[in-house]
Amino acid sequence: MEHTEFNNDLIEFLNASPTPWHAVNTMKTRLDAAGFQQLDEREEWALEQGKGYYAIRNGSSIIAFRTGKNDVVSSGVRMVGAHTDSPCLKVKPTPEIRRKGFFQLGVEVYGGVLLNPWFDRDLSLAGRVTVLDESGKVQDTLVNFRKPVAIIPSLAIHLDREANSNRSVNAQADLPPVVMQVPETDTTAFTDLLREQIASESGLKARKVLGYELSFYDAQGASYVGLREEFLASARLDNLLSCYIGLQALLDTSGDQAALLVCNDHEEVGSMSAEGAQGPFLGSVLERWCGAGKGRAIARSMMISADNAHGVHPNFMDKHDENHGPILNQGPVIKVNHNQRYATNSRSAALYRHISDELGLPHQTFVVRSDMGCGSTIGPLTAGNLGVTTLDIGVPQFAMHSIRELIGTQDGYTLYQVLKEFMQREEVF
Question: Of 283, 285, 303, whose CA–CA distance to 53 is shortest?
């Protein structure tokens, strides 16, 4: 895959994946096309060497792997991890709000959302809905309105003279999006609107909506930005970018070595769930794959946790350590924190640098300022759960956790090249 093809395909992936369920479904489609076989956790597995497999949990987390041509216990597994979720606004269970003829939906903030950029954006709505169909069967379906259906209007500066100097956002009062205007006598239920949308999208006629997990998202698609198109802007770059990079690396690797990609849900809220990185999903898959030799396989394995890094902002350069300010389009970023907010150690960092140097590709290092707090990733959680040597790496970006984020067009492709080589490397340790 060449650089331009990579970025064009990335844009398609981002636009097709407004929620974790859509992202996993998009990945499933691509794995199916590449000949990977889906596994059911409820059934026995009969894995063969030299084959590709994947398992999905909750529809929002996925593990895909190649068994390789050698015994996994003696070869170890080359693992890449990412997460499918992004900070957003999720619709509440009973969301209807009617004020002055405006129909609004109550929302709950999911993750560490940068709230101000959500105002005055064209918003659409997508997610998973559980319904009772006409035959009386309970089933899940995906829904995506695909067009602007809501907006959160700002309060005019004439009514808030301190908006530019002292603006705060009340998550309960200020965020319900305006969806439509209705008569004062209106009794429309949000679930009725969902049933209509489901029928129009898939033809599925639901007798009743039993539950949903829906989030608003920026209706503006991913696009190139910059006079010379050296940037790419999109929602959910944290961390669908890493999901895409890991997937492409796995698909394009030789398949000679045992390699695995895990993309977990719920990283943005702590990862403590059945399908999150603190849950048993990855450990369970490895146990069924490696059997009694799981511990020995892990001792020969390495995990690269891929999650974006903070690029140095030209307007806020003092927010970075002066020696550790990653620049967009100058290479992926090895993330270091000696308090174990990142799982990188000198050995795992050395292997990445070695592979990158062999390929003639750039890399950078990030350490947070000593007087600032440090975020975290699935890396330390996975390392702690499995006991696997782990590296935290990421593409540098601007506006992390905004509704629209920004990366350089070079860095994702660079990371893809290194991860592809890592996944087909004969020896890790």
Answer: 285
Instruction: Give the strand pairing for 223-225 and 178-181.
Output: unpaired
Q: How is residue 395 written in tokens? A: 């593409």
Residues 371 and 321: their CA atoms lie apart, in Å, by 10
Amino acid at 302: M
Residues contacting 373, CB < 8 A, separation 6+: none
Nearest CA-CA partner of 212 in 197, 223, 229, 232 = 197
Query: Would 45 be classed as within a structural domain?
Result: yes
CATH number of the domain at 33, please.
Answer: 3.40.630.10
Quick one: 297 and 360 in the same domain? Answer: yes
Instruction: Give yes or no for residue 429 having a pLDDT over 90.
Output: no
At residue 196 the predicted structure's pLDDT band, cuts being 50, 70 and 90, is very high
**Shared-domain flag, residues 206 and 157:** yes
**Furthest-apart CA atoms within the chain: distance in Å:** 70
Q: What is the CATH number of the domain that holds 184?
A: 2.30.250.10
Chain segment 305-344, per-residue pLDDT in tens: 999 999 999 998 887 778 878 999 999 999 998 888 888 9
**What does the alpha-carbon distance between residue 301 and residue 64 come to, in Å, rounded to a whole number?**
16
Length of the chain: 429
The number of folded domains in the chain is 2
Residues 187 and 270 occupy one common structural domain: no
Backbone angles phi, psi at 271, to 5 degrees: 70, 5
Q: Does residue 224 form part of some domain?
A: no
In a shared domain, residues 264 and 353: yes
Residue span of the structural domain in which 114 resides? 88-218
Q: 223 is written with which tokens? A: 């696009």
What is the per-residue pLDDT across 144-155, written as a single tens digit (0 to 9) for each?
999 999 999 999
